[in-house]
Amino acid sequence: MAKVTILGATGNVGVFAAHTVSEIPYVSDMLLVGRPGREDFLAGCCRDLSDSFAARGTDVRLSYSTSILDAKDSDVVICTTGMPRRPGQDRNDLAFENAKIIAETAETIGRSSPDAILFLVTNPVDVMTAVALKYSGLQPRQIFGLGTHLDSMRLKSLIAHYFRVHVSEVHTRIIGEHGDSMVPLWSATTIGGIRITNLPTFSGLPVQEMIETVKTSGETIIRDKGSTVHGPGEAIATLVKAILGDENRILTVSSYIKSEIHGIGDVCIGVPARINRDGVFPVPLSLEENEVAGFRESVRKIRKVTADVMERLEEAR
Ligand SMILES: NC(=O)c1ccc[n+]([C@@H]2O[C@H](COP(=O)([O-])OP(=O)(O)OC[C@H]3O[C@@H](n4cnc5c(N)ncnc54)[C@H](O)[C@@H]3O)[C@@H](O)[C@H]2O)c1
Ligand SMILES: O=C(O)C[C@H](O)C(=O)O
After folding, report:
1. DSSP state, 83?
2. Sheet harboring 61-65: ordered strands across?
3. Could you tell me which residue ranges the Lactate/malate dehydrogenase C-terminal domain spans (predicted)?
């Protein structure tokens, strides 16, 4: 059985993730961590969740704290701490402010929970994954970000709707940045096990429109309802379950790659990775030419934002 800690547990994503993660059968203990001054809110969350556990028949020991040190002995630490973007902002606009929070958080987790797997949700998530890797001192397999998993789910939903098939019949991936330079892998997209490009109806698929919808999904939801919650919350639970259940699922997350994709590496970015109890392991991959070009471009962009942030962090510390 496992202990899961949620950092940023008073936030929109943190609160909902507490609910989805508590449904995972391997979770025995859950710690909600918020900022000092938020004790009443955290206590209220615990009471409210406990009511839902009673209604659902869930047996998870819940506690809260305002100290990250209490994450000690966690199997998985989910980090949703930091600013969300406001309408009109790009995720990368949050990079430096959130990096300061993540660097400090990662240092503490690295020292207090050296065996934990640290899961970054905070945006811009690829950059935050790199910052956490550097400042935690944990192994690359122990650090990953939500990456393009949510984008892949968004594309999956659009494809299923277009072809009027159950979502479980669609497998697809988006790799690269969780942002504008993301790259859809049509070469790895299947419906009912059949490569989508082999379907006669593929030529009519509004590919560009679909990708634009995925790229602007977060922005549109934030404009309409303030924050994205249910998509990320469910995606977080899928990934935590893949770890705790030692599932060896291949999901597309932000992870440190050495050279797994066409020799491209030394960056944290969304790639297909095997996920199990030991952590996250990028899968070596061959792509089609246009996909490699798009991925290179995405890597170039993320490397630049990451390098700028690392430099500013060094100056500020
Ligand atoms: N990767 C993804 O797909 C994805 C999806 C959704 C949200 N996000 C990101 O997750 C983060 C949280 O989103 P949200 O909607 O829950 O935001 P929110 O404002 O509702 O919650 C943010 C949480 O971080 C805490 N926090 C903020 N600044 C802090 C600081 N300096 N020190 C300690 N704690 C601090 C707040 O107290 C709160 O608990 C954002 O960065 C958002 O962009 C990422
Ligand atoms: O779009 C955002 O800022 C939140 C998140 O990254 C999302 O894609 O839902």
Report:
1. P
2. 61-65, 27-33, 2-7, 76-79, 117-120, 143-145, 249-257, 267-276, 279-282
3. 148-309
Tokens at 64, concatenated = 């809260």
The residues pairing with 31 across neighbouring beta strands, listed in sequence order, are 5, 63
Per-residue pLDDT tens for 183-208?
999 999 999 999 999 999 999 999 99
Reading the block at residue 104, the tokens are: 């400090």
Q: How many residues does the chain have?
A: 317
Q: Which two tokens stand for residue 255?
A: 């992870």
For ligand 2, mutation pick of 126, 228, 253 (most atoms within 8 Å of CB) = 228
CB 278, CB 143: distance < 8 Å: no
Which of the 8 DSSP states describes residue 176? B
Ligand 2 lined by 82 (C-beta under 6 Å): no
The DSSP code for 84 is P
Q: Is 254 in the pocket of ligand 2 (CB under 6 A)?
A: no
Q: How far is the CA of 195 from the centre of ligand 2 (A)?
A: 29
Tens-digit pLDDT profile for residues 87-145: 999 999 999 999 999 999 999 999 999 999 999 999 999 999 999 999 999 999 999 99
Terminal Cα-to-Cα distance of the chain (whole angstroms): 38
285: helix, coil or strand?
strand
Question: Is 178 annotated in the active site?
Answer: yes
Q: Residue 221, exposed/middle/buried by CB under 10 A (0-12, 13-18, 19+)?
A: middle
- Gyration radius (Cα) of the chain, Å: 19
Q: Which ligand is nearest to the CA of 126?
A: 1
Q: Give the residue ranges of DSSP H helices in 58-113.
A: 95-112
Which tokens belong to 43?
């206590």
> Taking Cα atoms as reference points, which of 227, 178, 170 lies closest to residue 199?
170
Digit-coded pLDDT (tens) for 225-256: 999 999 999 999 999 999 999 999 999 999 99
228 lines ligand 1 (CB under 6 A): yes
Amino acid identity of residue 263, one-letter, is: G
